[in-house]
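Regression report. Comparing outputs from two consecutive submissions.

Submission 1:
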Amino acid sequence: MSEFVIFDMEWNMGYQPRVFQYQGIDQTLRGEIIQIGAVKLKDGKTVDRFSLTMKPRIFPKLHYRVAKVTGLTQADLDRGVPIKEGLQRFIDWCGPQAALGEWGLDDVPVLKQNLVLCGLDEAWPRRWYDLQRVFTSQRPRQEGEGMTLEAVVERLGIPKNDAFHDALSDAEYTAAVCGFLDLEKGLAEYPGEEQQLKELLCPPDRDRRDFACWPGYLDGEAWSTSETLRGAACPQCGQPLALDAEDIWLRKGNNCLYSMGHCAQHGPAMIWLRRMRLDGLHFTFARATEPADDAMQAKWAKEKKAAQERARRRKEKEAAEAAALAMERVRNAGR
């Protein structure tokens, strides 16, 4: 491994959500960057540092929660470098081909959204890594162990000489944690987005087959209507599955959908869809199928019935509310 940048950011948020358009699609802004800290490693040793506080323009007023966590003040932000200039300085310091590492997967999506809003190249960085994942792959988490940066620093006995939630301090703490790892090996083995989706969608204890992946979607709800994403094949013979006649798809968490399909030759099969959005701008979807045994069919029938009942009650409630509103309008018109 040659040069590698470990970075951390703090960002401000508004008191109301803010939506912006990216390639014609509405996106919700996660936050506006107000501080960046980074260390540059070469052959595992720190060779340079970067620290900058920036003046936001979309959320110019420092949110009280951000102030409480970071210790920053409104005066700090007001004295900061304009955000576009600050981001360009960070890009120049890192270099166009830099590989970035962060603790978790929160900072890069915010960074890329802010690059869009500042008219800078959101394709940068092209490579980034979750160093928490690298850590847990080499030092598996034990029951009861926290995985916040502070908890790991304490567990490793790293001196806590600086405050957490300062961007440069957190970047330096992360670099210190990486000193306990074979970082070069961890980065070499790091899975890409498709492999991460496959690990989530096709765990070793399930007989899920025919994994397929589609990157580059802007609409996170594309799976609701896309024939490409839903058009699964039988996991045993490869013939197209007939989808549930009522087109029922159920959610498992925020990022997974599943339904039941049917093969004329081999019978029912579960269809699983999952999405991932590592860069904060584009969704990648993946699909796999699984032969459905009697237990899975019974569970699906029960879940489907419950979902239909919830939908019926919701529709009745909406109809009742609409009728009450219409009646209120009639009464008001007669006064």
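Submission 2:
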Amino acid sequence: MAAPPKSKSKSLNQGLGSAKAAKKDEFYTQYVDIQKEVEAYLEFNPKTFRGKVVYCNCDDPFESNFFKYFAANFNKLGLKKLISTSYDGSSIAGKGTLFEEYTAGNGKRARPKAVAVTLDHVKDENGDGAVDIEDVKLFLKRNKAARVALKGNDQYAGGDFRSPECIALLKEADIVLTNPPFSIYRDYVSQLVEHGKKFLIIGNTNSITYKEIFPLIKDNKLWLGCTNFNVGMFFEVPDDWEKYHHIDKATGKKIARVSTACWFTNLDHGRRHQPLKCMTMAENLKFSKNLKGKKAYEKYENYDAIEVGTYKDIPSDYDGVMGVPITFLDKYDPEQFEIIANGDDRDEMEALGVPPLGPEYVGNVGRRKVGVASTKKAAFKRIFIRHRSRSTKRTKK
């Protein structure tokens, strides 16, 4: 599907940014995007999910496409168990709920209570010879034990991933998959790391340079997913949203595009073991449109490193430090490159001995759009990398 005009796309992203600030995180991931991403891991390792407990801890089981995908493919993936939790107060959660006990007694309170649903098997419940999501619905209707109300505590509402009930479920899980709230993304990722969980989650590309996130990328504890993160993603949004991209003809739901959404994971996949093909410095200076007319790569005024405006211009024969945009991470092979530092992190740069520069270096964005003056270069708005030693044997991490 074609992207919206630039003006409309900008308006949409501003609206979603405002939603983040207001902590309105009701974005439901499309089934096709989940299927595409998950199946890429199966191509690399068909046993990725076999025998595993999968936990979708920010998902209404009756609305979430994460739950629908893993429930429908429970046997194909060889899951041991699937757990999904909604949260109390969600404006979307429960609109498709099957069970009156989660709305009964609410009075004027239209939103359902939080619920956890657990599946430990999926079979042909309706006798039609096939095993699909309709069998899951029927099973849940028949088995009250498969669903549990979540009450939360004085600090967190029922179903909040930080509540004691949800943390207990997290401890049981092997792999967490969900679209967590962008507004508290730092807390969410920190919790997964604290409990040592494997995960495949959606996040914002802007979070790459967060102090809580970038060190994980640098230390190979977190990386980008399989889907190209430069294309953005489409999400279902509540009916009362005024800014959206289009209405899905099949479901009638409003769909909004988030150009900065991408997958983050610590599950291994094939793309991160594909070396980037690079030309030599001389070849890039001769053929690259970005370097046209230059006799050499520019160097930073305050750091012994060269400026590389796109991953396409990374030279194969330069052993020093290079400043690259965050889009490089979509091509990052940890066996080929080493990440040195985040140019946005003043503490990291000072630890490398990089002095700050005055506004004459960083005040004029200019045509280069890298946050530095077009006539002088400073180490700013860049990830710093270098080639791993050519004598180092390539081994999978």
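Expected: both submissions complete independently.
Actual: both completed, but the second showed a warning that disappeared on reload.
Relevant detail on submission 2: The longest helix spans residues 6-21.
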